[in-house]
Amino acid sequence: MNSTTMPSIQVVAPKAGAMEVREAPVPTIKPHEVLIKVRAAAVCGSDLHLFQWDESIRPKLNRASDNFKHGVIAGHEFCGHVVEIGSEVGTIMDDPTVKLKVGDFVSAESHVVCGKCYQCLHGEKHVCVNDKIIGFDRDGAFAQYIALPASCIWKNDPDLPYEIAAIQEPLGNAMHAAAHFSLKDQRVVIFGLGPIGMFSAVIALMHGAKHITAVEVSETRIKLAKEIGVHDVIQGKIARTPEDRAAERARVQNLVREAAGHDGPDVALEMSGHPDAITNAVKSVRRGGKVIAFGLTKDSAYTFDDYSKDVIFNGLTIQGIIGRRIYDTWYKVRDLVRLPEAQEKLRKVITEVLPYTEFKGGMERMLRGETGKIVLQFE
Ligand SMILES: [Zn+2]
Ligand SMILES: [Zn+2]
After folding, report:
1. For residues 274 and 270, what is the distance between their CA atoms, to the nearest angstrom?
2. Protein residues with C-beta less than 5 angstroms from the ion ligand 2
3. What global pTM score does this model have?
4. Beta-carbon neighbour count of residue 203 at 10 Å?
5. Residue 297: band (very low, low, confident or very high) from pLDDT cuts 50, 70, 90
6. What is the pLDDT of residues 89-100, one digit of tens each?
7. Rg of the Cα trace of the chain?
8. Contact 155, 92 (CB under 8 A)
9. d(CA 275, CA 250)
10. Cα 323 to ligand 1 centroid, rounded to whole Å
């Protein structure tokens, strides 16, 4: 590598498996931007969608890459050190007292928001109508350097371990989901223990939930959940025929209600996006219960089993969660990662730390459900 180019992991063609390590120009910053030398970046489920070139992800990247005239650098969960600051850089973290200097250890909010739309002007930047996502709409963090608007920069405690610093963005997703309703003294059920589900379990435990049940298929993840301290884990079974699926739903709903006691959990966190899990979440919470909807369904459609009874007569609250509240969620994440006990649990969820050149093997293992969170090292 010479000083004007850098290694990066790019999506190089519109087809499955077309992610490669390639040289890219080191980005030059605009006056409101900051240049960061990436220390480590974590692999997200959406990076796996890119890797597989799923239907859901295609339109975004075709646009960003101008129909693949050039590759797009992936990655949006990371930490690194500030190497250059633009001449017009202003406030970071929405806090005028926080100053940024070269050498600072930082992470970033992955949604670059406009600051001008109705939502942005009303304290709802996480649903900005003009948001651009790092690693999709613009070049990402799977690279030696990344340039970003200062408004996205989050300053880390200098002694925060780098692998924890790299996962704060997805941990923020989990925090946004798990802290939307207070979980203190609540009976909680989590459907799906992928990394975000697992992070949610850590948050629920640290936030004083009275009882946590999780529903998951993978043996590896069930074992991990028990190590973290989840009270009851129900192993879901893959059912294919409509009859088998109905029987499996009934079985899981009964077990969830039994585990929580009374007439079911107070709060369900639906992190899997599987239609049967969504139904189980809606049907297993107690009357007046709450459902956090986070997991994306493969097909966009979802049909309620018994909308009038389950939602209306039961007085259910269903809350969709996207991204992180900017920056409320980040401050909550900072409080969490400062706790040694939380760090210890989060480290268990990070099952692999690899050199970036080994990303393909890691992604393949992650696709097979054999890993927790994977962190790639760029230094
Ligand atoms: Zn992500
Ligand atoms: Zn906006």
Report:
1. 9
2. 113-114, 117, 120, 128
3. 0.95
4. 25
5. confident
6. 999 999 999 999
7. 21
8. yes
9. 14
10. 9
Taking domain 5-171+324-377, whether its CATH number is 3.90.180.10 is answered by: yes
What three-state secondary structure class fits 21?
A: strand
Nearest-angstrom CA–CA distance, 140 and 146: 7
43 C-alpha to ligand 1 centroid (Å): 7
Tens-digit pLDDT profile for residues 118-144: 999 999 999 999 999 999 999 999 999
pLDDT band at 151 (very low <50, low <70, confident <90, very high): very high
Cα–chain-centroid distance for residue 2?
A: 34
Reduced 3-state DSSP string for 317-347: EEEECCCCCCCHHHHHHHHHHCCHHHHHHHH
Q: Which ligand is nearest to the CA of 118?
A: 2
Q: Architecture of domain 181-320 in CATH?
A: 3-Layer(aba) Sandwich (3.40)
The 8 Å CB, 24+ separation contacts for 177-181 are 177/269, 177/271, 177/292, 177/294, 177/321, 178/203, 178/204, 178/207, 178/269, 178/292, 179/203, 179/207, 179/329, 179/332, 180/292, 180/319, 180/321, 181/267, 181/290, 181/292, 181/319
CA distance 87 to 95: 19
Residue 101 C-beta-side C-alpha neighbours within 13 Å: 3
Q: Give residue 294 CA to ligand 1 midpoint distance, Å.
A: 13
Instruction: Provide the pLDDT confidence category of residue 291 given band limits of 50, 70 and 90.
Output: very high
Q: Where are the domains of the chain?
A: 5-171+324-377, 181-320
- CA 70, CA 75: separation in Å to the nearest integer? 16
**Residue in the block written with tokens 């989060």:** 346
Ligand 1 midpoint to CA 335 (Å): 21
Which residues place a Cβ less than 5 A from the ion ligand 1?
Answer: 44
Letter for the amino acid at 339?
L
